[in-house]
Amino acid sequence: MKLANAPLAGVRIADFTIHAAGPFCTHMLSQLGAECIKIESLTRPDAFRKPHAVYGRMSAATFDQVSANKLSVRLNLKHPEAVELAKQLVSISDITAESFRPGVMNRLGLGFEDLRKIKTDIVMLSLSSCGQSGPDSHFAGYAPLFGAWGGLGSMTGYSDGPPVEMRHVMDHSAGLHAAVATMAALHQRRRTGLAQHVDLAAREVASAMIGDALIQASVGDTPVRPGNGDLAMSPHGVYATSQPDRWLTLAVRNDSEWHRLLQLLGRECNDQRFATAQGRVQYREEIDLLLTQWLANCNGDDIAKRLQQVGVCAHISWNMQDIASDPHLRARKALVEVSAVDIPPRLAVGAPAQFGRTDEVGIRSLTPALGQDEDYVFGDLLGLTSAQRADFQAREVIL
Amino acid sequence: MATAYAGRLLAAMGAEVVMLEPIQGTVLRNAPPFLQETGESALFAYLAAGKHSLVSDALAPEWPGLLDKALQSVDIFLDDTPIHERKALGLNEEAIRERFPKLVHVSVLPFGSAGAKADWQAEEINLLHSGGEGFLLPNGLSNEMFPERPPLKIYGHFAGYQGGSAAALAALAAWWVADVGGGQYVDVSVQDAVLSVGAFALQRLGDGSLEHRHTRRFRYGGVFQTKDGFIELLTLEDRQWGALVELLGRPAWSQDPGLQNPLERSRRGDEINAHIREWMAVHTAEEIVRRAQELGVPAGKYRTPAEVIQGEHERERGLFAPTRLQSGMQADVLVAPFQFRATPLKGADWVPAIGEMRVGCLS
Question: What letter does residue A174 receive in the DSSP assignment?
Fold first, then answer.
């Protein structure tokens, strides 16, 4: 795929991010056309190159979504000369992205102020658990902790149950928000010529997901955990259907939709408590019981389609196999088939949007082997000779 | 929802964002949750802070002129009008492109504006499940306690927020190239965005594993009940395991040589969690988290919104800004989930009343 017709064609990223959140940000930007140079080392490879026993993965990943589209080079950043090479990469890049704990880049000599000296209009993204400042900035964490700290975890759950831990969606949501802010910083640089340091704390993204509840709390109200319920819609929930583990999600917004639902299900409801939306919300537990009875013998997929035909919000709770089989997602290229010499065809997530004009967005290459792009990056971009590179390798600068 | 969040992110970063609202106001003005004292929507206050409101009745004769005037003066147009209503309103892709070739026109719909489901309707609960994440929740302790209950949505509008973020990103990316090739139409789907942030589950499917909420759990670690609340604990690296053992006071069970092997720990996760639960139940969240973070054990308290809004860390970072709501009440509103350290964001101090902006103010 050529880069010429992608919105971020010509934008280059020096990518020091690791794990999931930071790499998702740069992956999104790369899907939009940016050239992303991933910087790792043999001694500190990214997580996907190693077994991950806690996830039950006992070997390296063969395909890693968030490393797709990226070029790979090795630099042993414990070596001062590797740091100098890293600075050269930064100097020819538009964006520098990192997701180490706060302080690590400074200790390496690659902090924002260090890098601004060699690139006065640098756009730098630092993505971390808790941000670059504040008393908790040194806290280590992963996606479930972001949700816990940020309040999203405690607001999610059954009303009589424990909080719910957020998983990779929390990492990736942080990465997506980071991509938004980084893009804005690029625009700002174009307008002002000035450097910018974007500081994204993943826990604050979790807090942004409960922005309404935080306003309630700020005026002394106590937000409630609604579970699957809604304060304005009823029926509203996830209901069992005739097939095991085939759940129907349903949201009825007004009286008209309520009547269409009744008609489609062939039911009558003369209970005056349920005549208005307000009443149905007030008696939502009774409504849920009714719906549970009515839907228990329905084919979920069939009823979801028929409800949509009459304008009622319904959808099956899809597992990933359902998604993989969905022609709509494939037609939209939200879901794309990828393959490589050593990777049989499989599905991956495509670009975050479809562009009418600059439409060459998406996945161009899969997971890079460690250091596979050094001829281009060290040779063509930095101008290192073969002899220089061999010397750096011998002295474990490139490792 | 998604479109409102996209505009909110852009407004937080300094863009002038104008909501075109019907006379009765956007439905978000009446969307829960509501503040007890004033009855106003906390959700709307959050999403509209820093925006302007211009009343525009799409059924009125002056609508085409007003729309043209509005779109002549903007760089980005965010639209979530249902696809079947667009042509009659002059909002379809072709009409907008013809009249405003430099405009970045971002369509944000539940299932996108192209494809077989372009006209499907959905609310948050449908979208979270259509993108795969809803089916996988709850996992961990909640699922262990209530395995027979239906899957559970994430609080609020998580799917909508992902759609909004994708829309903001796409808008800024399209705007990046607007000066060289002109504007363009961009099609954003909330379902696509949910799938995008759920990419790991798709990756697992490609690896041969269909994730399910019953089995998607960390082998050890997760949610633990303490003496006074809940904490999250997760040790992914070997050194973190060593620190966890230290945190627990080096109990005899942890000295089992077999547990030095991460794969063996993974296999014996239930046994490990049983020990950790026992220990957690007799300690407070605060003492656990403080000591854990000193030792390098990733652990955090499940905080309530009140704890977040009063959090020392959040206060020091300026996460919230005092904002005057429509009622005149003051509230602290989250500024943005990111900071620009060279040019700090100030946060908006207003939530717009309906039609507080006049047509003549469009520049």
Answer: H
Residues of chain A positioned with their CB less than 8 A from the CB of B320: 214, 218
pLDDT at B125: 98
Contacts of B131 in chain A (CB under 8 A): 318, 323
CATH of domain A12-210+332-394: 3.40.50.10540
Contact (CB<8Å) B134/A238: yes
Record: fold of A236-323:
formyl-coa transferase, domain 3 (3.30.1540)
- According to DSSP, the β-strands at B52-55 and B230-233 are unpaired
Within A101-146, strands assigned E span 123-128
Using CB atoms, pick whichever of B122, B130, B232 lies closest to residue A148: B232
Residues of chain A contacting residue B343, judged by C-beta atoms under 8 Å apart? 188, 194, 196
Task: Say if residue B175 is in the same domain as residue B317.
Answer: yes
Predicted pLDDT at A61: 81
Q: How far apart are CA B50 and CA B14, in angstroms?
A: 9
Phi, psi for residue A318 in degrees, rounded to 5: -85, 140
Structure tokens at B135: 């089916």
Q: Global pTM?
A: 0.97
Q: Are residues B94 and B123 in the same domain?
A: yes
ipTM tops the 0.90 cut: yes
Separation in Å, CA of A386 to nearest CA in chain B: 37
B341-to-A157, A197, A199 alpha-carbon distances in Å:
35, 5, 7
Q: Do B36 and A313 touch (CB under 8 A)?
A: no
**Segment among A101-105, B14-18, B267-271, B317-321 with least mean pLDDT:** B267-271
Instruction: Chain A: give the shortest CA distance to residue B26, in Å.
Output: 15
CB–CB contact B150 A239 (8 Å): yes
